[in-house]
Amino acid sequence: MRTPWRVAVVGGGIAGLAAAVRLRDRAPAGTEIAVYEQSGALGGKLRTGELAGSAVEFGAESFLMRDPAGGESAAVALVRRLGLADRIVHPTVGQAALVVDGGLRPIPGGTLVGVPGDLERVTTVARPAVDADTDGGGPLLGPDDDVAVGALVRARFGDEVVDRLVDPMLGGVYAGRADDLSLVTTMPALARAARVEHTLVGAVRAAQAVAPRAPGTPVFGTLAGGLSTLVDAAATASGATVRTNATVRELTPAGDGWRLTVGPTRDPQHVDVDAVVLAVPARPAARLLAGVADETAAGIGGLDYASVALVTLALPEPALPELSGFLVPSTEGLLIKASTFFTTKWGHLRRPDGLALVRASVGRYGEEEQLQRPDADLAATVHRELSAVLGTALPAPVAGHVQRWGGSLPQYAPGHADRVAAARAALRSSHPTLALAGAGYDGVGIPVCVRSGGTAAEEIITALGGSGS
Q1: 186 partner at 20 to 30 Å CA-CA among 95, 376, 399, 416?
Q2: 3-state SS assignment for residue 224
């Protein structure tokens, strides 16, 4: 094996960049790191843009401050590592609402992604089933079981709790349906508790007790100046050679390492490396692994993705409620599935001229045809539906932006975690210098992706025989 090591990171989203930073920090001095990004910019779904003279997120908006055990999240740890901790800001308005029967009702507290630990607290938005959550004499889930979130919650709390509370919360994160999404992957803390507790209320309370939150402690944070500052700082700190508009088309064994075929088919470049982190969505990863690690490719290649569009409007002095935004159950029949009042939620974005930035998320899994509309049509529909929900005619926007994220949100069917574990085990056994990282495997959200990238980097260091520095 050559010295120094050469490691390729395929994919320049936050998982790939986190892997590159960890490699720089932990691999032997002199390790050569190269990041290959198919698009023209790093960051993946972290993208800060500009609208009406203000910085605005066209992708991910914020990150969780804590990890599931109650400690600092991987995103916060990376922010600190990059010297950006003084830029962390928190929402100044935290209360959000649900659209119920055409109007806004505050989202009740005390839930775990909408699943209540106290049924009385959710009666303002839904009528829980009476006496369905009984003790059957054993845990809700067996030691190896996984179920759809909707199936478990419907059986215990009834349809309204799912349709009006759990489904819109999951839809806001995954653009998917509670009846299709894995409990183990989307709510791992609740799944662990359900393997012990006999009732769903008991499982929710047990999961919440594992990582209690002190009153007033912020749940979310973002960076003043936008999340693209995190992307730029990570790329710089990694010391990696960054190549954008560089599609990796083929991955083949080459001696003790790997050969990447990069660039257009008419003029490809071949790059030899010792190890590869595949930080790309599951289907592109499966294509690269086909013929190299067929068992792993089959295990991850079936993952489906949802597409969404984010429509941001700049509105002159609108009459907005003092809310961070709202979620929309699919039963309401609206195109919008969620909306964020950026300049209300984030105090650092408020403008003295009263201009408000409002973003709406459009697109649910299985309804991709709705996204075939032209940008102007999407923006007009969002404006009309916002006005209807708020009960007031909003002023005409002075500027707008439509960001489309095609095939961007993984849809984790029950059993996803086991499939990924088996795929990784097969890869580790046959090709330990290949590692998978990203949302397609471990879950959505900046902290999860950062942790995934860091873990993949550690696997590569171990496989190459490094003890870290």
Answers
A1: 95
A2: coil
Residue type, 463: A
pLDDT per residue as tens digits for the range 391-401: 999 999 999 99
Whole-angstrom Cα distance, residue 436 to residue 459?
10
Q: Check whether 468 has a pLDDT greater than 80.
A: no
Give the relative orientation of helices 446-463 and 14-26 as an angle to the nearest 10 degrees: 40
Give which of 382, 242, 260, 230 is closest to 309, Cα–Cα: 382
φ, ψ dihedrals at 123, nearest 5°: -70, -15
Task: Give the pLDDT band of residue 216 (cuts 50, 70, 90).
Answer: confident
pLDDT at 145: 96
SS (H, E, C) 156-216: HHCHHHHHHHHHHHHHHHHCCCCCCCEHHHHCHHHHHHHCCCCCHHHHHHHHHHHCCCCCC
* Side-chain-side CA neighbours of residue 264 (13 Å): 2
Q: How confident is the model at residue 212 (pLDDT cuts 50, 70, 90)?
A: confident
* Residues 423-426: contacts with CB under 8 Å, at least 24 apart: 423/295, 423/296, 423/298, 423/299, 423/300, 424/296, 426/293, 426/295, 426/296, 426/299
Q: Cβ-count burial of 93 within 10 angstroms (0-12 exposed, 13-18 middle, 19+ buried)?
A: middle
Give the burial string for 359-395 (b: 16+ CB within 10 Å, else e): bbbbbbbeeeeebebeeeebbebbbebbebbbeeebe
Q: Is the pLDDT of residue 469 over 50?
A: no
- E strands of 392-453, at which residues? 399-411, 434-436
Q: Where are the alpha helices (DSSP H) in 257-409?
A: 282-289, 294-300, 342-345, 375-390
pLDDT in tens, 241-252: 999 999 999 999
Sheet strands (E) in 241-344: 241-243, 248-254, 257-262, 269-273, 275-278, 304-316, 325-327, 336-341
The answer to whether the predicted template modeling score (pTM) of the entire model surpasses 0.85 is yes
Query: Given a cut of 70, is residue 140 above it in pLDDT?
Result: yes
